[in-house]
Amino acid sequence: MSKGEGQDEREVASAAHELFLLGQKTVEARAVLAALQQQLSDASSRLVDSQHVEQLIEANQQLVLAILLAQSDAVAGPPQEEQHLYQELREANAQLVIAALSAQDLQATAERALGQQKNILAMVAHELRNPLTPISLIAERMVRLPSDQLPRMRELIEGQVQHISQLVDDLLDVSRASTGKLRINRRQVDMLRILNAAIDACSPVMVKRQQQLDVELPDASLSINGDPGRLAQILHNLLANAAKYTPIGGRIKVFCTAQAGMLRISISDNGIGVTAQALPFIFDPYVQDVHAVGFNGAGLGIGLTVVRELVEAHGGSVTGMSEGHGKGSEFVVTLPLMD
After folding, report:
1. Same domain for 80 and 159?
2. Same domain as 169, residue 238
3. d(CA 162, CA 318)
4. What is the pLDDT of residues 204-255, one digit of tens each?
5. Around Cβ 262, how many Cβ atoms within 10 Å?
């Protein structure tokens, strides 16, 4: 076997391995979709039967008629007895009206929840399906491509697999957080090393988009009792968001200080910003500002939800600030330092 043939086989084997990893992530994605489908079914089952509401309204009309009849017959009977019956009918009617209105409110709330669940399910399915198309095309072409193009095809597959992996991991983290099953494996970690590693990991994207990155970190050691993987995930999500929502040629700044036993990490940019209407809800799951939807690619709107859950699991807090659309944004994470 020639050296070139051996190289080709290794490239094909590597690409096949990436496809195998994709298959595993696809199984996880299907599990997430199944869970969302179950939530959708639960929301549907909680819908109030509209026929029941109509029956309540019909009963209310019957009671009103009985009240009117009681009033018309009051002259013929003992006044005190008729007045007591009339009062009871009025109270029963009032309770029935309240029950009917409550049922209508419950129905409207459940219908809104059902519609929201349907939109989320469609959005998740769309986001998970998007990377599969280029992967399928690449897989079909690989058998006909010359060997010098195989590394590029493998790189494309790896990128799509990482995209799916990130989506599935974020979905699973949101699900775990909502059920109290988010795992944090704490140990003493040097936050300065994690910061530098996260910056190094996200820098290529910023370089590609010709964005200026300014970093200001303290020289001292920053020891935190935390999960290094989860802390890296927090920083990666925030830095990736800054790069994603900052136009080409924009500016991103990372500023870190330690004071009074707390570590403060600020990640700011001069990107598209956040509107005043969306700002109070940016950490809620599946929430995206109107002008951010579709900007530089799609997303599920759960990255900041994951950040909030992970930061709070470490005993810290995260806040988001922006002066409005087109005026950039700043996210500040505070974490307790070890003594």
Report:
1. yes
2. no
3. 26
4. 889 989 999 999 999 888 999 999 989 999 999 999 899 989 999 999 999 9
5. 13
